[in-house]
Hints:
The protein is mainly β.
Amino acid sequence: MVLYTPVPVELLGIEEYYSNKDNKSNKKEVLYGNVRLEVELTGENSCKVNRIISTDPNDYLRTDISPGAVINLQPELAYNNKN
């Protein structure tokens, strides 16, 4: 069903139709380098790219972060070098 309306889905009363069926979404937004990505966690440090959230057209040409690509996320450690 396609609705062409400026009214938010919440006000139409049909959000159950558009909501995630299992409600166990493991989608997250992460910063990978300088690019924000929406990813789906597949393992402890790995995830699958769902979409690219960027205003730079060159980010969409990168094959390493294209939707469907599996990337490894390594935790970043903050290192403070104060003596």
